[in-house]
Amino acid sequence: MKYNFLRTMLLLFCSLVLLTACDKDEEETIPEPTKKDLLTAHDWRGDQVLVNDINVAAIPGVGSNAATFKTMLLSFREDNTYTASFTVSGQPQSFDGTWQFNADETRITLEMLGDFDITTLTEDNFNVAGLISSDNVDFIARIMGIDTTIISIITGGGPVRTKMQFVKS
Fold this sequence. Notes:
By secondary structure, the protein is an alpha+beta fold.
């Protein structure tokens, strides 16, 4: 009898150890998305452009064309290429380019536009700030149907401090 009692107790003890040794599975932690993940997750729609801290929509002779920026969709791809699609005077336009982050992912280089500081990059917002060279300003003005002489008068023919705000599309 003593043998059966010991065997039962041993069996009970082993069962108890097995049942308590199996903790509930720990919740799997989801890693934070990288900046590349955030940038390439979806398209970005143009929301607002500031040139020398002035909202482009408020500049006479330019403001009516500022709506073009709101039609812009930027599609960034994992292979470091992007497409900018927009509408000018009812006509769809687009151009392709390459993009690259700097080493600490605080700046982005966009072919055709230049280098920009990333001021915001979240799931819903992508904002950049930087200088656009006079050549690139003229290029953008031509694309948007803006008289480059007006741009030259406003900018003095030099580079332009620009802030561009994009929202998740």
